[in-house]
Amino acid sequence: MNLFKLMKMKIKCFLIIVITVCVFNQTIQAQQPSTKINKKHEAYRDSLKQVDYHYTFPFMGQGAYNKGFDIPYPVGIMGNFVWMEQGISVNNLQLGLETKNVNIDMTPVDFIQFGDNVNTSYSVNVRPDVWVFPFLNVYGILGYGHTKTEVNLVYPITLRSVVEQSVSTYGIGVMAAGAVGPVFFSVDANFTWNKPELLDKAVPVRVTGIRAGHSFVFHNKPDRNIAVWVGGFFMETGSDTYGQLKLKDALPSADGTKRDKIVSDYYNWYDNEATIPQKAVADRILTPIVERLADADGEAIIKYGLDKQVQQKWNGVIGAQFQYNKHWMLRTELGVLGNRKSVLLSLNYRFLL
Fold it and tell me: Residue 7's domain spans which residues?
C-alpha cells in the first residue's frame, strides 16, 4: 500500500470518528431537556402519574396524567385589559350628504389623499375557555371599549379629523399548545366582530399569535411558575367600512376661525388647482358639504364608505405570566417591533369541571 492510500485511509477513519462523536454528542444534548428532571420535582411528577382523573375535559386527560404531564385545569375565565395604537391606511373613499332638504347618494372621491392616520383604542373583555384536549383550547370573547381615530387629509386641503366612539366586541378563538424539551409554544387564532357605534355594520377582525418561551418553576412549589415568551402577532380587519356621523362629530374642533380657514382653503383649491373632472365630483358632493360647514350646520349627516386596513399586519410581542397556583394566573404582554404598539394585562382563574 503506497503512502498516498495510507494517508487517505487514515483521514477517512478520522472523519468517521469525528462525525460519530458529534452525532452522539448532539443526541445526548437533544435528549437532556426531555429526560432530565429536577430531583425536587420527581415526587410531584410521580404523584401526577397516580392521579385518578374522572372529569370530562380535557379528553385524554387521564392519559396525560399517566405520563406525568402537569396539565392546566380545564375550564377558565379570563379578564383582559388591552390598549393598542396602530397606523391605518384609507383608500377608495366615498361620501354622501343628508340634511332636511338634501339627500346626496354615496359618491366616489378618489382624488382625496390621506397622510398618517392613527387609531388608538382600549377595551375590557371577558374570555371563557375550555381545554378540549390537553393540547387544544377553545374560547369565546365578549368585550366593550373605546376607540379614537385620527384621520389626516393632505389633499385637496389640509384637514385633521378626530372621531371617538364606543365599540362592542364578540368572537371565538382556538389555541394549540405544546412543548419541545424546555421550550413551550402556542398558536392562537381568533375571529371577532367589532361594532363601533357610528358604523352601520360590525367590522370583522382576524388575529393570529405565535409564541415560544420557557417556564421557570419554583423549587419548593412545583405548581407555581413564571413563564416568559416572545412571538409574533398578526391582525387583519375587514376592509369595507360604511357609516355616518354628524358634521359636528366629524370636525369637533372646527370652531369659527378653523371653520373659515377650511372653507377658504377649499375654494382656493377649487378655483386654482382643481381639474375639470375633479370639479365635477366636487360640485356633486364636496361643495355641498363645505356649504353646510360654512353655515355651521352641525346636524348635517355625512355618509361615508372606505377601504380601511391596518398599515402593518405583523408585529413582535414579548410577554410574561406568573402562575400563583393552578387556579390563579396573572399575565402581561407588550406589542413591540412594528407600527403597532399594545399593552395587555389579564387575570385568569381556572377550575375543574
Answer: 3-34
